[in-house]
Specification:
The protein has seven helices and 19 strands. It starts with a strand and ends in a 7-residue tail after the last strand. Helix 6 packs parallel to helix 7. Strands 11-10-13-8-9-12 form a six-stranded antiparallel sheet. It folds into three domains: 90 residues, Ubiquitin-like (UB roll), CATH 3.10.20; 99 residues, Elongation Factor Tu (Ef-tu), domain 3; 126 residues, 3-Layer(aba) Sandwich (Rossmann fold), CATH 3.40.50. It is of the alpha/beta class. Strand 1 and strand 2 form a beta hairpin. The longest helix is centred in the middle third of the chain and has 13 residues. 19% of the residues lie in helices and 32% in strands. The chain is globular and about 70 Å long. 37% of the residues are buried. Bound molecules: flavin-adenine dinucleotide (FAD). Flavin-adenine dinucleotide binds next to strand 11, strand 12 and helix 3.
């Protein structure tokens, strides 16, 4: 049995399966309900049932008194739908609404995606979840209290884990440790989420998503979220790397383009190596490929992440090619400040 849920005042709607938690169904379909503990105790996901019936399988949580329940007051992280619903919820509309937390996390997997890129999956403590916007980053806190920024590579709908893509930096304190010594089950501490690199909801312009190297991480999170939301405006995904083996999730990017007519994927190699002799695709700098393809960028929103040199070069070229500055959003992967 599936029920329909309408959210006020946004007018967003989603479907919910029998026995599925309302918060889970909302996040799964890209509707940004606020939340914290996911156990009914913090009240962050508080809202109102305007019509329809909900139920608390584990009993009424402490945050809701019996008379408040009767008046429609509700928390959605521990409740399920018993009919079609109309709910009043203050959806998370900007990064400022999101709580920044310092949390421990366990490294549950370390997987080499290429010679110099590691996929690290972090699991949060059972009672914790991290609300974040697709494209944001966390800061890992090292023993000497210095910090290293890494973008979250998964969509917020899967908030039990955080996926990171770490490029090995020669002589880099943290990434040398990750590549050479770190074992699964290691506990790390981090703070986040940070950053305003996320898709703006007040625009329907076609999107140019541009990744340089591990800049693919936040772009992946954004694209996963757009797909979940069934957003069908044209998306042009450019991924610039040195050689073909650096396209460490090429399979995924090709799958997106294959499964969704509105998504185009353009990988671009900057250094043509012997192994890539049969490469039929684009070569050169990724931002140059973009300006070759689009002589007028004024009708696009551009989101780009990656090395500072790429971001700086692209900013200059794109604005010369008609892109208004307020349609350009970027995360420049600077090195951490040296302590
Ligand atoms: C918002 C944000 C998001 C990021 N997301 C990601 C991500 O998803 N994936 C990813 O791989 N990286 C990401 N980065 C970059 C990452 O944080 C850095 O590469 C980080 O410093 C690596 O840590 P490390 O301890 O291994 O290297 P560090 O110990 O920080 O040292 C790096 C090496 O470079 C040298 N160095 C330091 N500063 C400079 C400088 N300014 N110029 C040249 N050399 C310098 C140092 O001497 C050292 O040898 C992100 C950065 C930011 C700011």
């Amino acid at each position: 049995m599936t029920y329909h849920v309408l959210v006020q005042p946004s007018g967003h709607s989603f479907e919910i399966e029998e026995n599925e938690l309302i918060l889970d169904a909302a996040l799964r379909q890209g509707v940004s309900f606020p939340y914290g503990c996911r156990s009914g105790s913090c009240g962050t996901c508080l809202g109102k049932v305007i019509s329809g019936e909900i139920e608390y399988p584990e009993g009424l949580p402490l945050t809701i008194m019996e008379h408040e329940h009767k008046q429609g007051k509700a928390v959605f992280c521990v409740s399920i739908a018993k009919s079609d619903l109309t709910l009043e919820v203050k959806e998370v509309s900007s990064s400022e609404d999101i709580q920044i937390k310092t949390l421990p996390a366990r490294v549950i997997s370390l997987k080499k995606l290429s010679d110099d890129v590691m996929e690290m999956t972090l699991k949060l403590p059972e009672t914790e979840r991290l609300a974040f916007r697709a494209g944001q980053y966390i800061e890992i806190i090292l023993k000497d209290k210095s910090r290293r920024a890494f973008s979250i590579a998964n969509s917020p709908s899967n908030d039990e884990v955080l996926e990171l893509h770490l490029r090995h930096v020669e002589g880099g304190k943290f990434t040398e440790y990750v590549f050479n010594e770190m074992k699964e089950k290691t506990i790390l501490r981090f703070e986040g989420p940070f950053g305003s690199f996320h898709i703006r909801e007040n625009s329907n312009r076609p999107l140019l998503l541009i990744a340089g190297g591990t800049g693919f991480a936040p772009i992946k999170a954004m694209l996963e979220k757009l797909i979940e939301e069934a957003d069908t405006r044209p998306v042009y995904l450019y991924w610039g790397v040195r050689e073909r083996s650096d396209l460490y999730r090429n399979d995924l990017a090709e799958k997106w383009a294959f499964q969704h007519k509105h998504i185009s994927y353009i990988p671009v190699l900057s250094e043509f190596k012997e192994n890539d002799i049969d490469w039929q695709g684009r070569t050169g700098f990724v931002h140059k490929a973009v300006i070759e393809d689009f002589t007028d960028l004024s009708g696009f929103d551009v989101y780009m992440a990656g090395p500072p040199v790429m971001i700086d070069a692209a900013k200059t070229s794109f604005t010369q090619q008609g892109l208004p500055e307020d349609q350009l959003f970027s995360d420049s992967f600077e090195f951490a400040k040296q302590a």
